[in-house]
Amino acid sequence: MNEYLVDVNNERLSFFTPAGEVKALNDVTFHMKTGEVLGIVGESGSGKSVTAYSLLGIVPHPGRMLGGTLMFNGQRLDTMSEKQMESVRGNQISIIFQDPMTSLNPVFTIGSQIVEAIRLHTGKQKRTAWARAVEMLNLVGISEPEKRMRQFPHKLSGGMRQRVMIAMALVCEPKLLIADEPTTALDVTIQAQILELMQSLRKSLGMAIILITHDLGVVASMCEKIAVMYAGRIVEYGTTDEVFYCPRHEYTRGLLNSKPLLDDDAKQNLTPIPGAPIDMLNPPAGCSFAPRCGSCMKICVRETPPASEFSDTHYSLCWLNQKAVFETAGKDEAR
Amino acid sequence: MTNLAAANLIEARELRQYFTVGGFLNKKRVKAVDGVNLSVAAGETFGLVGESGCGKTTLGRTILRLYEPTGGSISYNGKDITKAPMLPYRRKMQIVFQDPYASLDPRMTVGEIVGEAIDIHKLASGKKDRTDRIIFILEKVGLNSEHANRYPHEFSGGQRQRIGIARALAVDPEFVVCDEPVSALDVSIQAQVVNMFEQLQRENGLTYLFISHDLSIVKHISNRIGVMYLGKIVETGESGEITLHGAHPYTRSLISAIPIADPHKARKRERIILEGDVPSPLNPPSGCRFHPRCPYAAARCAEEEPSLNETGKGHFVACHYPECS
Ligand SMILES: Nc1ncnc2c1ncn2[C@@H]1O[C@H](COP(=O)(O)OP(=O)(O)OP(=O)(O)O)[C@@H](O)[C@H]1O
Ligand SMILES: Nc1ncnc2c1ncn2[C@@H]1O[C@H](COP(=O)(O)OP(=O)(O)OP(=O)(O)O)[C@@H](O)[C@H]1O
Ligand code: SF4
Ligand SMILES: [Mg+2]
Ligand SMILES: [Mg+2]
Question: Which residue of A has its CA nearest to B50?
Answer without folding.
Answer: A187
